[in-house]
Amino acid sequence: MIRPVAVIGAGPFGLSTAAHLRARGIPVRVFGDPMVSWRDHMPGGMLLKSTPAASSLDCPQPGHTLADYCDAAGIRRLVTDEDVIPVETFVAYGEWFQEKLVPGLEQVRVVSVDRGPGDGFELKLDSGELFTARAVVVATGLSGFAHLPAELAPAAADGPAPAAPVSHSSQHHDLGRFAGKELIVIGAGQSALETAALAAEAGARVRVVARGRGRVAFGAPPWKQPRFRPESPFGRAWSLWALTYYPHPYRFLPEATRHYLVRRVLGPLGAWWLRERFENGVRVRDVERVVGAEVRDGSPVLTVRTHAGGTERLTADHVIAATGYRVDVAALDFLGPELRAGLQVSRGAPRLGPGYVSSEPGLYFTGLPAAASYGPVMRFVCGTEFASPRLAAHLAAAHG
Ligand SMILES: Cc1cc2nc3c(=O)[nH]c(=O)nc-3n(C[C@H](O)[C@H](O)[C@H](O)COP(=O)(O)OP(=O)(O)OC[C@H]3O[C@@H](n4cnc5c(N)ncnc54)[C@H](O)[C@@H]3O)c2cc1C
Description:
The protein is of the alpha/beta class. Helices cover 26% and strands 21% of the residues. It has eleven helices and 19 strands. It has helices at residues 12-23, 36-40, 66-73, 87-101, 190-201, 238-245, 255-264, 275-281, 337-342, 371-374, 384-399, and strands spanning 5-8, 28-31, 110-115, 121-125, 130-133, 135-138, 166-168, 182-186, 205-211, 231-232, 235-236, 282-287, 289-296, 299-305, 311-315, 318-321, 345-346, 349-350, 363-365. The protein has a five-stranded parallel β-sheet. Helix 1 (12-23) links the parallel strand 1 and strand 2 (28-31). The radius of gyration is 21 Å and the shape is globular. The mean pLDDT is 93. It binds flavin-adenine dinucleotide. The site of flavin-adenine dinucleotide (FAD) has 31 residues, from helix 1 and helix 2.
């Protein structure tokens, strides 16, 4: 029997990779809940920060861009940099892409991956099925990587949760639960600022606690972008252009530089269209840093160091930590201990070679875990354009 390739994940990267492998005639089994990060782990009513040009899932079959979906669904075409994409439209686009190009998707979880007989892998599904794959693509995206800073841990003794004093931003879809409540959102990235604006619009009294003076900032609208710099899906700048279209040499940069760029490029900056909504409803508290957190009478209390050097306590009914994601292969608990131990890592992220292959032959990573090797573009949907054809070509040559 021909052993298939297993693609674990049905978000933008898993679906795009599967479309490329299928187009090459490679047998593939794809697992996961389609677009679940976007449907359940981002706030309803959210708008994408990326422009329509940067929000299509790459595939070799023509006719499957976001604009093609708009035509097929009979909705207004989203094409210019001024068109903002509602998350609900993007989820529907991903599901349409999946139905057309990845029809046999299996909505089950992979519970374990271990080295199998020969050079293959043995996978166990939560349906109880065991099978052997010739290669495995890990496209599990943000799952398992939500980061809660250590200073907030004392207020989240039983783990962060929407009903507990502290939660992580990935745990929210319906911010209406905070109507009439005092809410603190920690962070200054798009996720923090948009969560804060949406919660305020849903009736919460919201403060954003941001580290560093003047940290809350918004990007320039498309018509104010500098003219004489090259265009990239993220704005006009030489650095963005190079990182988007030429990520090939990224993995040869010094380790510290690679990790720094992943964190800082396209880092904390709100979208241009969010500014007015944010400023209308949200207060900002700049602090030196948050130094601790505790729970008093069931409510969270933050201790912050002020810019003047003193400490202050901030109270609320709930704190949302919009503190991002940290890649750590140790969090990928479905990878068997031997496989994980054999993986070469760089600060927790898998070290990838050409074609997105890890140090374990046949084991590939794409999406966020590949950012430390291929750059910040891998954090975004448009990264599928570079990653998916290269990964599929490498896999076809090595295991096709
Ligand atoms: C608030 C927020 C806003 C964002 N906005 C944008 C934006 O505007 N534009 C942009 O380009 N990017 C944006 N991003 C980044 C975006 O989330 C990623 O680019 C994208 O979702 C990554 O896709 P992915 O396919 O790698 O993973 P995900 O979309 O996270 O999908 C993961 C998949 O893995 C599956 N899975 C996980 N574990 C298992 C398992 N054990 N077995 C089987 N399946 C499993 C899940 O079911 C799911 O199908 C945003 C992120 C956040 C948090």
